[in-house]
Amino acid sequence: MDVAIEPSWKAHLHQEFEKPYFQQLTQFVKQEYQHYTCYPKGKDIFAAFDHCPFQETKVVIIGQDPYHGPGQANGLCFSVKDGIPHPPSLVNIFKEIKTDVEKPYPKSGNLERWADQGVLLLNATLTVRAHQAGSHQNKGWETFTDAVIRTVSEQLEGVVFLLWGGFAKKKSALVDQRKHHILTSGHPSPLSANRGLWFGNQHFSKTNGLLAQMGKTGIEW
């Protein structure tokens, strides 16, 4: 089955694309995009992979669902297209970066600039129906993205996994912690951040510290 995904990822994931669950998922997604407004645009479904080739993956950030408002989702978790107002979780991410690594709050919420440096911005579910959060959950995407996490864990070394919130933390079970680094904290959503579970986690400076220890270039957050 031909899936339009970046070639280095295709080489590692091609077996997933042949499995019955993925073929059912493909049918479901095609039907949804035909009959409803869905996000992100079809060409952006695998954007997280297109910007971050397999061997260049240094950091993995796991989100849950794409944004479901018009023009927001661009295929990278927590990221929005240029010129789109920043959703609350992204606002809190940028605030933490400002205090942690003293970078000014950015104009654009487009995180392609991170992905291009080796940050895999992976949502567990890669598509969603407009205005219906979670509408494409439990259709097969999670099976696929769990396979992605497992493949990164098995085939690469020294990747820093940033797991924010209860949902993402459960993914630590898929990661070989003898080979990789895991940083966890509360979710950057206002609900969690306002309870003191997000701000001050210093994940951005800590990530660069770990990368430096391994002789890798840090991320320009």
Automatic annotation (TrEMBL):
InterPro entries assigned to the protein according to its UniProt record, in alphabetical order: UDG_fam1, Ura-DNA_Glyclase_AS, Uracil-DNA_glycosylase-like, Uracil-DNA_glycosylase-like_sf
Catalytic activity: Hydrolyzes single-stranded DNA or mismatched double-stranded DNA and polynucleotides, releasing free uracil
Primary localisation category: cytoplasm
GO CC annotation, single: cytoplasm
SMART domains: UDG (SM00986), UreE_C (SM00987)
EC number: 3.2.2.27
Pfam families: UDG
Source domain of life: Bacteria
Active site, renumbered: 65 (proton acceptor)
GO biological process: base-excision repair, AP site formation via deaminated base removal
Entries under CDD domains matching the protein: UDG-F1-like
Domain Uracil-DNA glycosylase-like: 50-211
Subcellular location per the Swiss-Prot or TrEMBL entry: Cytoplasm
Keyword field: Cytoplasm, DNA damage, DNA repair, Glycosidase, Hydrolase
GO molecular function terms attached to this record: uracil DNA N-glycosylase activity
Coiled-coil portions: none
Family the UniProt entry places it in: Belongs to the uracil-DNA glycosylase (UDG) superfamily. UNG family.
Physiological role: Excises uracil residues from the DNA which can arise as a result of misincorporation of dUMP residues by DNA polymerase or due to deamination of cytosine.
Protein name in the entry: Uracil-DNA glycosylase
